[in-house]
Design brief:
globular; disordered N terminus; 28 helices; Nonspecific Lipid-transfer Protein, Chain A; single chain; 3 domains; alpha/beta; four-stranded mixed sheet
């Protein structure tokens, strides 16, 4: 610890003001009272915050405190989040019997006083605004001091007193509780489980806190961006009911996106929101649990709100809007010949079912709209509120490819008629809202899914009679320009990633999505999912996703010979629960042969080659694993025993002779006998079948291990030793030589390098990584 920091700490402690009970704080500094903190960006304190404080909070604090799953709901990524403070309520809680009241910044409270009424407590001083009180009464400041009084060891693995599990018990201490907290957990200073900040960094934060912790928003967008905002708001808010229905559909699919108008401007992002005020007036947000819930206003206006929070990789869904996109939307939704005479109801049983609400719109228009930004739509359940933990993720395999049925072939009038006839069977669990009874509801929705599949298979048997059109010509080719036509999804146990392209080795399974399936996935896991819902809602969501995964797999299997379909499904669902066996047979009634002529006994391999060939013009080369140079390339063939020791996502930085860096991602794919067991995932693990892929660049947003290789000799040694690992001790030995552990004294230096390199690789897709899953090994 630097001498000056020690002196600062001792002065505060000896003054008797560092850790005091709540009554003493009241006696010395007065009662807590909301303080005005937000100032203009062009004031002295506003400029100080944006230039010196915000970059520190972003790179040292927001990497753990930035999202729904931030510890104690402390979001330091925006002025409103800093001022709101922390809460003892858990957002991600798979055991609650009743839904929790939402606590979304900007939406569920309009000012700090309302957050206090919702039991959020401050991390900045809210008593007398003196320099002494501002330091002594700040949870943030005292948390930094606590780290300095009990720093991390400078190497090795941290002890058992550190709990990094996602479901760990949270203290969420108030200033009045801090004394007891510090004595019980002296190791729990901030940044938690990471080295303390530097003296210079500390001084910047100390000065800011002394002066009252003033915060400021980033500057407003430039005139060019604002002109685009006005243009788009005019399009989305015309009086015609046809336009209103179109805007409603667009909003319910794009509301999570970070919209931008120029790749050169990586600071001006916008959120599409519902407002009770028209364009030209200040936005007044309509706050509902779901994007389709009753707005309780006569007229909804769709507005573009400047996104002023720090951009985080794990929630960043960039969407480019331009003249071509505007023209495309007009062609898809306004030009077609249909008439809207009344707006659909917002009743839950109606609004949760897109096949009812948007029945008037041509199926092909809706499907093409989703296909145009397929990666973004799927990214909604990867990076949206459902993203964390096992709610939706243990229902998908660790590595699989996704393609789409061609709208010209499957979005026909016959398909549209079938969907209209069975719109009730297509109802989704979100109709039960946020408090659901899982078992009885599951039976109901399972029966409805069976009814729909029966109708779908009956129509498919007619459309593909004798294998006609049942070839790779069935697949959407992105109109030869759109690389959304081929996607890869990676599951990283309790997080996931979607990228463009058919990435990595040939996967165990593949999905082929049609319109109805694609739409239901979105309304199940994105629009209809409530992260604050009860255990029944979350369980029902997970169980229903089983149906949708099976349907996507069944569409893929239809391209294979009948015998191969059965063999593959049997392999994918080894040791499946008996209770689900009958449902897994859904789709077996599809009796048409494939239209593809196969020449080998490995038809799945042949089909993958055919699909790659068919989609070759639009396949993104960005993460082509074959382009990783030797000797790192050989890691793709590591033995399972060594792979088992690796975390799900590891970043490898290689320093070049010119000082620049090359980046690679090691992705560990967990193999399973089946993924239909909700409560016993470990029991379904096929450890001997685990695989790994190393790709150029960054995949994933939650690094679990960071490897730094200084030169080519280290690259060679690393590539030789990693496959030779047998036991945990081997892994720890390698980590000591090449890894950047939590205890590395220069951790933050390497973190800054990591983010700098990521910014170069990701461009407009760049956001801060999240360190909540960083391993301690």
């Amino acid at each position: 610890m630097k001498k000056s920091l020690l002196v600062s700490f001792l002065v505060i402690v000896m003054s008797g003001c560092a850790y005091l009970g709540a009554a003493h704080y009241d006696e010395i500094f007065g009662q807590e009272q909301i303080q005005p903190r937000i100032v203009a960006h062009n004031t002295g304190s506003g400029a100080e915050f944006l230039q010196h404080v915000k970059p520190l909070l972003d790179t040292r604090c927001v990497v753990c405190h930035g999202c729904y799953d931030a510890p104690c709901q402390l979001k330091l990524s925006s002025p409103e989040g800093i001022d709101r403070g922390l809460s003892k309520d858990l957002v991600y809680d798979g055991t609650r019997l009743l839904a929790l009241n939402p606590s979304r910044l900007l939406f569920d409270a309009t000012d700090t006083q309302q957050w206090r009424e919702k039991n959020f407590t401050p991390v900045l001083n809210e008593r007398a605004q003196t320099e002494q009180a501002n330091l002594a009464g700040s949870v943030l400041y005292n948390s930094l001091l606590l780290k300095m009084s009990s720093p991390l060891p400078k190497e090795g693995v941290l002890g058992k007193e550190f709990d990094f599990s996602l479901d760990r018990k949270q203290s969420c201490t108030t200033m009045g509780e801090f004394d007891r907290f510090a004595k019980a957990q002296p190791h729990a200073g901030m940044p938690y489980g990471l080295p303390g900040i530097t003296q210079t960094e500390f001084k910047h934060l100390e000065k800011w806190l002394k002066e009252g912790g003033k915060v400021a928003h980033i500057p407003a967008p430039d005139k060019v961006a604002l002109a685009q905002v006005l243009r788009w708001e005019q399009f989305l808010n015309q009086d015609s009911l046809k336009y209103q229905l179109t805007a409603r559909y667009i909003f319910e699919h794009w509301y999570l996106a970070n919209i931008y108008f120029s790749k050169d401007d990586n600071k001006s992002f916008f959120k599409l929101v519902r407002s009770s005020t028209p364009p030209g007036e200040d936005i007044k947000l309509i706050s509902t649990r779901r994007p389709y819930d009753d707005p309780k206003v006569d007229r909804v206006y769709y507005r573009l709100m400047h996104e002023r929070s720090t951009i985080l990789a794990k929630t960043h869904l960039p969407l480019a809007l331009d003249d071509a996109k505007l023209a495309r939307l007009y062609t898809q939704f306004i030009e077609p010949d249909y008439t809207v005479t009344a707006m659909p109801s917002y009743k839950p049983e109606i609004a949760s079912n897109p096949f009812k609400v948007f029945a008037l719109m041509p199926v092909k228009s809706k499907y093409q709209f989703m296909l145009d930004e397929a990666e973004l739509i799927i990214m909604g359940f990867i990076k949206g509120p459902v993203c964390r933990g096992q709610i939706a993720l243990n229902v998908i395999n660790d590595h699989f490819w996704v393609a789409f049925a061609d709208p010209d072939k499957v979005a026909t009038p016959e398909v549209g008629h079938m969907l209209l006839q069975h719109e009730d069977a297509l109802a989704l669990p979100a109709a039960e809202e946020s408090n659901a009874l899982p078992i009885s509801s599951w039976v109901k929705y399972a029966n409805r899914q069976s009814t729909y599949l029966e109708a779908k298979v009956k129509l498919a048997n007619k459309m593909f009679k004798n294998g006609e059109h049942l070839t790779t010509d069935l697949l959407w080719r992105g109109e030869n320009t759109n690389n959304n036509a081929a996607l890869t999804i990676f599951r990283h146990f309790d997080s996931a990633t979607v990228v463009k392209g058919l990435i990595g080795q040939e996967p165990k399974t593949m999905w082929v999505l049609d319109y109805a399936l694609f739409e239901r996935i979105h309304y199940l896991l994105v629009a209809g999912f409530d992260v604050y819902g009860n255990v029944g809602h979350q369980l029902l969501t997970r169980l229903y996703m089983d149906f949708l995964r099976l349907e996507g797999e069944q569409n893929f299997l239809a391209l294979l010979p009948k015998q191969q379909r059965q063999e593959l499904k049997a392999n994918w669902y080894r040791k499946s629960p008996t209770s689900l066996t009958n449902f897994f047979k859904s789709g077996d009634e599809f009796s048409q042969p494939t239209g593809i002529t196969y020449n080998t006994n490995d038809q799945q391999h042949e089909l993958y080659k055919l699909i790659k060939s068919t989609l070759k013009p639009i396949l993104s080369p960005r993460f082509d694993y074959t382009q990783v140079p030797e000797p790192l390339q050989q890691l793709n063939a590591m033995p399972a025993k060594a792979i088992n020791l690796l975390p799900q996502v590891s970043y490898v930085l290689v320093k070049e002779t010119d000082g620049e860096h090359q980046a690679y991602t090691l992705i560990h794919h967990n193999a399973h006998f089946n993924i239909s067991s909700l409560l016993n995932e470990d029991g379904q693990r096929a450890f001997a079948e685990d695989t790994i892929t190393i790709v150029p660049g960054f995949i994933g947003d939650y690094p679990e291990a960071i490897w730094y290789l200084n030169n080519q000799d280290q690259v060679t040694e690393f590539a030789q030793l990693l496959p030779m690992m047998q036991v945990e001790a081997d892994y720890r030995s390698l980590k000591s030589r090449f890894g950047i552990r939590r205890t590395n004294p220069e951790f933050w230096l390497y973190s800054d390098i990591l983010h700098k390199v990521a910014k170069q690789y990701r461009g407009i897709e760049y956001g801060l990584f999240d360190y909540n899953r960083l391993e301690n090994r």
